[in-house]
Specification:
The complex is a heterodimer of chains A (about 475) and B (about 375).
Chain A: H1 8-12, H2 14-24, E1 30-31, H3 34-37, E2 54-56, H4 61-74, E3 78-81, E4 98-101, E5 108-112, E6 117-121, H5 126-133, E7 138-139, H6 152-158, H7 165-168, H8 171-174, E8 175-181, E9 187-191, H9 202-206, E10 215-222, E11 224-225, E12 230-237, H10 240-252, E13 259-264, H11 265-275, E14 284-291, H12 294-309, E15 315-318, H13 322-333, H14 335-342, E16 344-347, H15 357-371, E17 375-380, E18 388-392, H16 399-416, H17 435-438, H18 441-454, H19 468-481
Parallel strand pairs in A: 2-4, 3-4
Antiparallel strand pairs in A: 1-2, 5-6, 6-10, 7-11, 8-9, 8-10, 12-14, 12-15, 13-14, 13-17, 16-18, 17-18
Chain B: H1 6-14, E1 21-23, E2 36-38, E3 45-49, E4 54-58, H2 63-72, E5 75-76, H3 85-88, H4 96-101, H5 109-112, H6 115-118, E6 119-125, E7 131-135, H7 147-151, E8 160-167, E9 169-170, E10 174-181, H8 185-196, E11 202-208, E12 213-220, H9 222-236, E13 242-244, H10 251-256, E14 267-273, H11 278-283, E15 289-293, E16 298-303, H12 309-313, E17 318-324, H13 327-333, H14 341-354
Parallel strand pairs in B: 1-2
Antiparallel strand pairs in B: 3-4, 4-8, 5-9, 6-7, 6-8, 10-12, 10-13, 11-12, 14-16, 14-17, 15-16
Classes of the chains: A alpha+beta (about 475), B alpha+beta (about 375).
């Protein structure tokens, strides 16, 4: 993975930048010893590492503003960081950057049930947002698998999803407003407790901009009342194609489950060995979850089961207790951990039209043979968001490169059948150079001009999202201007 | 100008040497330069997969055509776009491009989300005459910046939409409407809030002061609707007498289209606020008639011609936009609430990049 050459001029001025940052931040909020900056050398895409020049941990919006203003004046790139759980390298530093971590800003600022929102500082973790309201039977809907650790700041940057998006949408559908600091240090407030923008929907373009437009310090999030109950049903099929058809038939029937999860043989076995969820031995497993009162769940599940029966399932099991439901979900939610016990893996998240599921799974199987690397599939089937997990051995020379080439081929396939490179993880560095496969130069230009408006010097997380060749002239213009 | 293809449109825009008004079917009262680019020639549903809940259509496709296609499969546009013809006294055929460009959503917005939440992808021609695409036709897509949301509600100021893809949803089997008799807006909003924060999935929450009723809509399977209806009746009994309307008829379509304001003289404004602030907000304005939707978060107000409602409102969190007024008022006050300077600068910067020659709907947004 290519990263731009660190700017020697910035590295030379490290002491000056450090001194200026120490004037606006408490000493313990500025990390500059190489032994300590190493803690920020990577995110959850651990194959790539690079310690930053400096790291700062501001506690207030004012401190964030001061840091950005100074870095803008000193022409130092800034890489914002939530909890560092990005699977796409969204928080990967460069050697000449300042990491700006928002982890210390984790307070709940306001909870308003009558107007159904919560306002939090952006370093708060996803799960602890729900934690702040769950005693009163409310929750925050987006639920990425990393929800115990991941921060709202990162959720907004990547427009994170989760297993229950089919009903509740992703982050952008649950974000009402932000307080954000621009690279020049100015603070803007966009949206709030009211609905819809009065002008251009800037909130919509900020969400998912991967920390390239500004640093969000506060977020107003929609909270929802918990449903009365939730219950999954487990279905096993002999054949991927049949399982895919069953998903389509359920959706066409007029029922909208909150989640439809899919696993293939390799994942089923790995998860079963890991979590002992009682998964059947079969080629394709579906977990379909519905919500509501007991009677509503009975009704929806009876319709779903009726549809499933038409597809000759080898297993069909409705959860009989909260304990059994938890077990069924534990298996699914530990899929990444379970696969990690088999070997190193690379997790992709291309999205495809649901109708292309059988074709794409078949092609992935064929490519797996060609590359000689096993792949397990676990994904959100209702919305076509795949998560192929390619197994490889990081200690074996050439295996990572082979795995990356295989991954790129899968993602190109997703685009070719009418889907996209990433459904919920973001582009980061991982898919940056594949962007040209999905977007024509004019399409990329239309996105990059947005960054020109928010961050004219291209200092915020500059080497991400866009192919390096496409963003080069802008990044170089910045360096040349110094 | 009424191009028949995207390529033809791109060529037209590239060759423009004066500003134009962008319109779809011309039903939403967009004023502006005499010269217009109409998208009504770009029509047709290009893809509809009921099993994937997705539909792709050319921007000029009539809403009626889309709704008929969805209806045949038991599906719908869940955001319930308003028909502006009655309120504005316009004629013509509303198009999907117009709905998207205005981010137009109806009562179900409070539960299901706005038009922008259902928009999966766009194609458009920018101010240089270049064809640009963003998003796609899948429900989860974080590949690059989300210009899809930006284009929704941009009212033709950033580009001329040529094609949109949308997430659609199953049509509910049945619907029921509960009416809570209330005598003031404070009680009404409190009743609507109580319903919206219950687990009983309300898909419409309005208050019509003329009816003296807070109105709640429940949709879904018959058994589920009747169960939730019973639960809500007891939950809300403390706010006023609760009854299920036996014949709601076109009630929700009328609320959606602000039918009570049709053919009433005066200017019509739409105010978006935090629901609990609605009572305080309406107390500040000299409205002849009001209507509340989205649990109180959307206030429709009919005011005397030429009233500067923003001056009366003073500072508040939200925005007040003009939906219907004379040309003079629109020019004097501006259709859209002026934005804070930091936001206005960003908006201006984006417009300048997308339409550097300032050709599209000049003066409309900011």
């Amino acid at each position: 993975m290519e990263m731009p050459t660190p700017n020697p001029d910035v590295l030379r001025r490290k002491a000056v930048v450090l001194q200026r940052l120490l004037q606006v931040l408490p000493e313990e909020a500025v990390i500059h010893e190489p032994s300590e900056t190493r803690a920020y050398e990577c995110d959850a895409l651990t194959a790539y590492r690079c310690p930053p020049m400096l790291a700062v941990l501001p506690s207030t919006t004012q401190e964030v503003s001061d840091v950005l203003r100074i870095c803008n004046e000193e022409a130092v790139p800034v890489v914002p960081r939530g909890s560092g759980t990005s699977l796409a390298g969204g928080a990967l530093p460069t050697a000449d950057c300042v990491i700006l971590g928002v982890a210390r800003m984790n307070e709940v600022l306001e909870v308003d049930y009558d107007n159904r929102f919560i306002r939090v500082q952006s370093g708060r973790t996803n799960l602890s947002v729900t934690g702040a309201v769950e005693e009163d039977d409310f929750f925050y809907a987006p639920d990425p698998s990393s929800q115990l650790a991941c921060a709202i700041a990162g959720n907004i940057a990547m427009n994170s999803g989760g297993a229950h998006c089919l009903k509740y949408g992703v982050t952008t559908n649950n974000l009402l407003g932000v307080k954000m600091v621009l690279m020049d240090g100015s603070v803007v407030e966009i949206g709030g407790a009211h609905l819809d923008s009065g002008g251009l929907d800037l909130l919509g373009v900020i969400c998912g901009s991967e920390g390239q437009l500004g640093v969000v310090t506060e977020a107003t999030l929609r909270i929802l009342r918990k449903p009365e109950g939730a219950r999954p049903v487990l279905m096993g099929f002999d054949d991927n194609e049949v399982a895919g058809q069953c998903v389509s038939d359920i959706i066409k029937s007029g029922i909208l489950p909150v989640a439809i999860e899919f696993m293939d043989t390799l994942c089923i076995k790995a998860c079963e060995n890991f979590a002992h969820a009682g998964y059947p031995d079969c080629n394709a497993l579906l977990i379909v979850e519905v919500e509501g009162s007991e009677a509503e769940m009975d009704y929806q599940l009876s319709k779903i089961i009726e549809i499933a029966k038409r597809h000759n399932p080898v297993e069909l099991r409705e959860s009989q207790s909260a304990e059994e439901s938890a077990k069924i979900w534990l298996g699914r939610k530990s899929a990444f951990g379970a696969m990690g016990q088999l070997n190193d893996y690379m997790c992709l998240d291309g999205t495809i039209p649901v109708s292309s599921l059988p074709e794409v799974l078949r092609r992935i199987g064929e490519m797996s043979e060609e590359y000689g690397l096993p792949v397990g599939n676990v994904f959100h089937a209702g919305d076509g968001n795949m998560h192929p997990l390619i197994l490889f051995d990081a200690n074996k020379p050439g295996d990572l490169e082979k795995c990356e080439a295989f991954g790129a081929d899968i993602l190109k396939l997703c685009v070719d059948v009418g889907g996209c490179l990433t459904g919920e993880h973001g582009v980061g560095i991982e898919k940056r150079d594949l962007m040209s496969h999905q977007y024509a130069p004019a399409d990329l230009e239309a996105q990059m001009v947005i960054k020109d408006v928010f961050d004219p010097n291209w200092l915020l997380n500059p080497a991400k999202v866009f192919p390096l060749s496409a963003s080069e002239s802008r990044r170089i213009a910045r360096i040349a201007a110094e | 100008m009424n191009p028949k293809t995207e390529a033809e449109l791109a060529e037209m825009v590239a060759g423009l040497d004066e500003p134009v008004r962008i319109t779809g079917g011309g039903t939403r009262g967009v004023a502006g330069p005499d010269m217009a680019i109409q998208t009504s020639g770009l029509t047709g549903i290009s893809l509809y997969e009921p099993g994937a809940l997705t539909l792709v259509a050319k921007a000029g496709t009539p809403i009626g055509e889309i709704e008929a296609a969805l209806d045949a499969e038991g599906q719908q546009l869940a955001f319930e776009p308003m028909d502006h013809r009655g309120l504005l006294g316009t004629s013509g055929t509303p198009t999907i491009g117009g709905v998207v460009a205005g981010n137009i959503s109806g009562p179900r917005r409070v539960q299901a989300g706005a038009c922008r939440d259902f928009l999966l992808g766009v194609r458009y021609v920018d101010g240089m005459g270049q064809v640009v695409k963003n998003g796609g036709r899948v429900m989860k897509n974080v590949t690059g910046y989300d210009l899809v949301k930006l284009m929704a509600g941009s009212r033709g100021t950033l580009g001329v939409l040529t094609e949109v893809s949308l997430k659609v949803l199953p049509k509910p089997e049945v619907a029921a409407t509960l009416s809570v008799q209330v005598s003031d807006v404070t009680t009404a909003v409190a009743a609507l809030s109580a319903a919206l924060k219950s687990p009983f999935e309300v898909s419409g929450a309005a208050y019509d002061p003329d009816m003296g009723s807070a109105l709640l809509r429940l949709e879904g399977f018959a058994g589920s609707v009747s169960y939730r209806s019973d639960q809500l009746k007891s939950l809300l009994s403390g706010f006023g007498e609760v009854a299920e309307l036996e014949h709601p008829g076109t009630l929700w379509a009328d609320l959606r289209d602000a039918a009570g304001f049709h053919e009433q003289s005066g200017d019509v404004w739409r105010i978006s606020v935090k629901p609990s602030e609605a009572p305080d907000i309406v107390a500040r304005i000299p409205a002849d008639r009001t209507l509340f939707d989205w649990g109180g978060g959307l206030i429709w107000a009919l005011v005397p011609v030429g009233t500067d409602l923003r001056a009366q409102l003073g500072a508040f969190d939200g925005h007040a936009n003009i939906v219907r007024a004379g040309q003079e008022t629109l020019v004097e006050l501006g259709r859209f609430q002026p934005e804070a300077s930091g936001i206005a600068a960003l908006t201006k910067g984006i417009r300048q990049k997308f339409d550097p020659r300032g050709l599209f709907n000049p003066g409309l947004l900011g």
